[in-house]
Amino acid sequence: MKKLVIIVVTMINVALLSSFLVRDPVPPEVAYPTGYRNWAHMKTTMNKSGVASHTGFQHIYANEKAIAGYAAGKFAEGSVFVFDVLETKEQPDGNLLEGKRKLIDVMVKDSSRYPATGGWGFEEFKGDSKTERVIKSMAVKYCYSCHANTPTTGYVFSKYRE
Length: 162
Hints:
With 162 residues, the chain is α+β, with helices and mostly antiparallel strands. The protein is built from 3 helices and 5 strands.
């Protein structure tokens, strides 16, 4: 009986230790989208409420592959979207101007690198930084958890507007 207790306690300890050592694999980093402001501008929205980091002017840009994906109804490997968020500066006359960049969110289609998130890699870069990453390994929690609700549109929220 004593041997059985020792074996059970040992197995429990091994299981507990394993749960601390086994982690979700860290997805590969998403590259900063150099030159994205020269891509197609999809739309601009103004968000005045919600998550503070995402309030302000929101510009969405798409590369050529992403644009073709809207028409095809399926986004090809290499499609990239950028969500550029800028502060809002209200003027005395009521007009709104863009302020400093708050962040850019990037979404890149690469099914082999990002199978756990519908084939999309996600990242958020802080302010004007091309290296200061915010999302890192938390893409499932912060990005894909919402995008997973849109499989019929290829996990993309925006729509093409002519």
